[in-house]
Amino acid sequence: MRPFTENIGSILVFAVVGTIWNSFLIGLVLYGVCWMEGEKLAGVDLLACLLFGSIASAVDPVAVLAVFEEIHVNELLHILVFGESLLNDAVTVVLYHLFEEFASVGEVIVVDAFLGMVCFFVVAIGGIAVGTVYGLVAAITSRFTSHTRVIEPLFVFLYSYMAYLSAEVFHLSGIMALIACGMVMWPYVEANISHKSYTTIKYFLKMWSSVSETLIFIFLGVSTVAGPHSWNWDFVIVTIFLCLVSRVIGPSGGWQPLTPPSFS
pLDDT averaged over consecutive 10-residue blocks of the chain (264 residues)? Predict the structure, then answer.
């Protein structure tokens, strides 16, 4: 927890600024590709490209983090990659919903773009606020469960899920609420619950995260092969190239982080 908070500046640069940079660079360049293709990609407008760019800008370093744990890489490097991947997903989801709303409107003017920027921060900060409240409630509740240890894991899961649902009800970021709730509960709830409850929560979440990742990749594979698809080699090759180049020249690659990792 402490390395995460100490390097929150670098993590936010990677996760927020880097994700926004990648989304707009990929979306704008792909729109140029669609414009040059002419009739082949005539139905793909700018908002559709930005919507696709927000999806392509997300990273999933599950394999990288697994290798880091096996070789016991430098803790600072591990926390930077982990923190960036954690917040990157939340930023990507908020951007996706923002571009989705713009696409449903059709015509976007300058005022809409400005309100969209305000909405982006309101949704993200509002989700953090909701998660923080539930995390504090969970921390207070865990102080009075010494006589009923069996319900401690239930409270942890319940408050986390309620934080997510409450944020989604008010159209805020559920992922940000979940992250904030977990960060607040981590130092306080862990100190109040028993060792058996902590072990139960730890291994249950590890098991469920593995199951969730497997299901996600299964559904992704099924959706790839199912249904009609229009294949365009130029679009695919440029997308792969941009996914690599945008991370190198952007804040998540070429810029110097606020707290550079040490490899010693």
Answer: 74 82 88 79 79 81 70 78 77 81 74 79 87 91 83 88 90 84 85 86 86 83 76 83 81 48 43
Q: Are 143 and 188 in contact (CB under 8 A)?
A: no
- Report pTM: 0.72
Instruction: Give, in degrees to the nearest 5, the angle at Cα 139 between 133 and 142.
Output: 140
CB atoms near residue 33 (< 10 Å): 18
Q: What is the DSSP letter of 229?
A: -
pLDDT tens profile 92-137: 888 888 888 777 776 777 777 788 788 878 888 888 899 999 999 9
Burial degree of 147 (CB within 10 A; 0-12, 13-18, 19+): exposed
How many CB atoms are closer than 10 A to CB 114? 10
151-184 per-residue burial string, b: 16 or more CB within 10 A, e: under 16: ebbebbeebbebbbebbeeeebbbbbbbbbbbbb
Length, in residues, of the chain: 264
Distance CA 125, CA 172 (A): 8
Q: What's the confidence (pLDDT) of residue 1?
A: 62
Q: Terminal CA-to-CA distance of the chain, rounded, Å?
A: 21
Q: What is the C-alpha to C-alpha distance for residues 242 and 30, in angstroms, rounded to an integer?
A: 9
Closest by CA to 35, choosing from 23, 24, 44, 47, is 44
